[in-house]
Amino acid sequence: MQKIARLVFLLLPFGAFIPTSGVAAVQTDDFLVTTTAQLLNLCTASQTDPMAVPALNFCHGFAVGVVRVLQEEDAADPRSKAMFCLPATGADRNQALAEFVQWASADPSRMSLPATDGIAEFLAASYPCSH
Fold this sequence. Notes:
This protein has 5 helices and no strands. It is mainly α. The longest helix is centred in the middle third of the chain and has 25 residues, at 52-76.
């Protein structure tokens, strides 16, 4: 999992967020995205939460950024096996984030994962490569 460690190092200045199930109101500290729980909190912000728009926008942007960095890292070393393989037609971002929230929420131990690790593990489990 050296790739994940490098990703965490690269993204640390930007923060990493994974939404929780919308149970808690979004807190400013959630935007530090230290854990998958914080990212989940952002991604599942209630529409009535005053921080909902920035939280949801941050969630989507962060997730896309993590995916792109992982893809670039895989492409940089063609000798290594890709961590995940998205469908040729792409993946619907809203659906993938909903599946991520479900996946992360299904196992409480995932909530303490660094957000980038949570996304990477979800991608590896949900979009395995056939080769």
